[in-house]
Amino acid sequence: MPITVLLVDDEPLVRAGLRAVLSAQPDIEVVGEAADGAAVIPLVRQLRPDVVAMDVRMPLLDGIEATRAVLRTVDRPPKILVVTTFENDEYVYEALRAGADGFLLKRARPAEIVHAVRLVAEGESLLFPASVRQLAAEYGDGERDGNPAARAALERASLTEREAEVLRLMTRGLSNAEIAAQLIVGTETVKSHVSAVLAKLGARDRTQAVIAAYESGFVAPG
């Protein structure tokens, strides 16, 4: 089954460019387009895309609020990939905190666009881990020891020593297979640990778990 994608951007040329790049791939299908975040929820319910590639800045409803709305109101929501002009953008970090699974630069090369969609759809690795770390360092609201609320949430999670080790490796962007090689365990074992970490942190995916790790002071983003 192909990865189905919904494109949301107020610039027709951006949508056309993304459609041309993604539709050229045999394993990706663009199933719809929208010009604003306000149209996302009905289209997601109608088309059930695997991934929504969504501009972070739009005139009526931006990518941050649209992300929150989708995750709040849609059962089994899609992966959300925010599309941005500027990498070091507070809007991008807020979108990640709101629940987006990754971000993509509008100037990205075609191969990078395709890779981002595939990686976010698979959900087994972190997209652009160094950039997420940089965003957390600049825009995270925690202190050196972490945001008190985020720190308390991490303490309540009571991660085991192995789960904490897996979370640290997740912040580095390692895939399940790479974590398994690092810890000398099976991939299925790593998947179980990752699932446990997400469940204990109340995180939707790896990106949210990594954001929680930075904001709690569990790992330093700098």
From TrEMBL:
Domain Response regulatory, first and last residues per copy: 4-121
UniProt protein name: Response regulator transcription factor
Listed GO MF terms: DNA binding
Domain called HTH luxR-type: residue spans: 152-217
The UniProt record lists the keyword Transcription: yes
Keyword Isomerase: no
Domain of life: Bacteria
UniProt KW keywords: DNA-binding, Phosphoprotein, Transcription, Transcription regulation
